[in-house]
């Protein structure tokens, strides 16, 4: 993942939280989270917020700041409902796809989804 902003966004989305819910869980304002995730603002979490994120979401401060060491694992619970059971044994593939999706524009994501849906092996449910 590129930077702290992308890692915070990824972490929040992995837990299915809105900015307001994420903010409440770490005891900051939703505006703070919005600023941290925004590419247009230089704002990043301070020491207390980093500690709170690390404790609340079981990630290392090294990972938050630099993407180093112990990246959080994607649990089967967070994605198993969306993929075929035979692929559930490979959470790293889902994690790579998730990280890539965070870097894509809405138009690129829609093209990717359309392409997947056109594939003959694609099935819902």
From TrEMBL:
InterPro entries reported in the protein's UniProt record: Cro/C1-type_HTH, Lambda_DNA-bd_dom_sf
The HTH cro/C1-type domain covers which part of the protein?
8-64
Q: Give the top-rank taxon of the lineage listed in the UniProt record for this protein.
A: Bacteria
Single GO MF annotation: DNA binding
- Name of the protein in its database record: HTH cro/C1-type domain-containing protein
